[in-house]
Please model this.
Amino acid sequence: MDKSKIDSRYILNRVSRSFAKSIPMLDANKQAEVENQYLLLRFMDTIEDSKNHSIEDKRQLISAYFELLSSSAKPGMDELIREVSRDAIDDHDKILVDNFYDIVHRFHSFDEPVKIISMECLTEMGEGMLLFQENKAKIDGILNHYCHTIQDLNKYCYYVAGTVGNYLTKLVKIKDDIELDLQKAQNFGRYLQKVNIIKDFLKDLEEFRCYWPTELNPELNPLRLIKDPDARGQRLAVLEQMISEAMKEFGPTFDYILSIPKKKGLRGYLAFCLMAAIMATETLLQMWNNENVFLDRSGVKISKLRFYQIYVFSKFGLYSRDRLVQYINKITESPLIAAT
Model:
């Protein structure tokens, strides 16, 4: 394939199947902006995830990244692409990195207010991620541990996902002149990120990193949760605490979604948010009291049938307000809420 003809939708399909499904649900006046923002965030995340760059190297790469976004000039682009590509995790990330010039070019085509909120989100997220990189602790000399307290977890989830909630909400204001609650948008972002952190425990551990707060069980090395056959009780107790923390974001998340007007121009945004929130909630239900979070390398996932049910119901607006309230009430009666 001619790389010059690789468009952003092709790249999106390679780096995130879930967002490749949900972003096209968005209303036409927001699709290109959200798609581009995701790819910009993913590029920065590729820098942050580098195993062979020091903190100072990463700071310099992030600085070069922002200089390129702040100017339409190309100098330094090839060097940045070459340096980041050298340590990209897989071939899909390499496609993203190698086509960074086109992503930046698309960014510069947007209206100034959109570029301003994009840079606000990217800057705050980048600074926050570097802060946690600097403050990470080593366990057994190999495992990078990022969160010591629940407060750390909340702060980390704000930086990497709450900021995205801010961006989306400000984008709705710019494009549709609708005011949505920024605080609840941050809850929404944190909710999705906390679910991912729980779901990806084993995957992250295999990459020598952990985001579960040490204060949940200060005496327990996270590696023991997967190595010790007698640690079942501790595994499930810590899992319950993590799910409890995620569920603290559940109410505000669905309040945010219920506040989105079901009208032309926002139906796609409602579907986009709804699919993400219900997928996260259904994933939590699957993980409740489930040791496979720690033991199954394929991860805990909802069924393909349930995924497509959620996808179809969200995309075609089949969740009426009454039906959504019934769903919320059903979750509030489940063990997930009882744990909080």
